[in-house]
Specification:
The protein is an alpha/beta fold. The chain has 2 domains: 162 residues, 3-Layer(aba) Sandwich (Rossmann fold), CATH 3.40.50.720; 118 residues, N-(1-d-carboxylethyl)-l-norvaline Dehydrogenase, domain 2, CATH 1.10.1040.10. It has 14 helices and 9 strands. A 6-stranded parallel sheet has the order 3-2-1-4-5-6. The protein has a 3-stranded mixed sheet with strand order 7-8-9. Helix 2 links the parallel strand 2 and strand 3. The longest helix has 29 residues. The radius of gyration is 20 Å and the shape is globular. It starts with a strand and ends with a helix.
């Protein structure tokens, strides 16, 4: 079923259009953002109510959705006298779309349960374009009953929505996603760089190999802009480094070995030093060109 009263906390490049899909579906949406100007802008684009405090946004919510920066931001919006857990009604479902640690997801699950609320960690993949088009992939961790209760509502901005296991499983699945992407982008960057150095028609090369085993989402959606040296779009290098730091920390905890992810993280550090903190993650190719 679709929830009727929705609170959306965090209107960044992802949260803004995600909340918009809910409003366009006719749901009653209250929004809050750290900078109130963004919330006011949202209400000029969509039907809904901008709230000056989190408490006002969540006071009658059936479903509270958050999409903020990292673990410290989650603690700020969920805890304390003005936070979500203290002010949302008992029985409310709290769903977090932030890419964060599995530990904070498990922590928030327990805190919500103590307040007779349900919590689901639900990080997303698909970037700003996926959020705007309502085509995100959502990986969830939590209880099946809570997941089934929000499935239809989350489906308003997703193309794939899966429960991966107990609390924290969504975040761990997102880590797997980011680990895979890091290696793919580096491999594609090296392939393009090699083709350039070999004096090949790079676009024709990509067109040919994209029909075979080398094909990937990154190749289909990022190769043209990589060839053109255009990176003012997509998922920022700063965000990817934040995500990879979470992956590497979890790997230390569970004993897994991530040598390629660790190396690519260092390469992204080089891109940051080149001034590419807000470039798309496909900008790894610029590091090779510079060298």
């Amino acid at each position: 079923m679709r929830m009727k009263n929705i609170a959306f906390i965090g209107l960044g490049v992802m949260g803004y259009p995600m909340a918009g899909h809910l409003a366009k579906a006719g749901l009653a949406v209250k929004v809050w953002n750290r900078s109130p100007e963004k919330a006011s802008q949202w209400t000029s684009d969509y039907d809904g109510e901008a709230c000056s405090t989190i408490a006002d946004a969540v006071d009658n919510a059936d479903l509270v959705l958050t999409c903020v920066g990292a673990d410290p931001d989650l603690r700020e919006v969920y805890y304390g006298p003005g936070g979500i857990i203290e002010n949302a009604p008992g029985g409310a479902v709290l769903v977090d779309h932030t890419t964060a640690s599995a530990g904070i997801a498990e922590e928030l699950y327990e805190a919500a349960a103590a307040a007779n609320q349900q919590f689901i960690d639900a990080p997303v993949s698909g970037g700003q374009q996926g959020a705007e088009n309502g085509q995100l992939t959502i990986m969830c961790g939590g209880d099946e009953q809570a997941f089934n209760g929000v499935r239809e509502t989350l489906g308003l901005y997703s193309k794939a929505l899966n429960l991966m296991g107990p609390a924290g499983s969504g975040q761990k699945t997102k880590m797997v996603n980011q680990i895979a992407i890091a290696g793919l982008v580096q491999g594609l960057s090296e392939a393009i760089h090699f083709a350039e150095q070999a004096d090949l028609d790079v676009s024709r090369v990509i067109d040919v190999i994209s029909k075979g085993a080398a094909q990937s989402w990154q190749m289909e959606n990022r190769s043209a802009t990589m060839i053109a040296g255009e990176f003012d779009h997509g998922f920022a290098v700063d965000w990817m480094r934040k995500d990879l730091a979470i992956c590497l920390e979890e790997a230390r905890r569970n004993g897994s070995k991530l040598p390629v992810a660790a190396l690519v993280d260092q390469f992204y550090g080089d891109v940051q030093e080149m001034g590419g903190r807000r470039w798309d993650t496909s900008s790894l190719v610029q590091r090779l060109r510079k060298r």
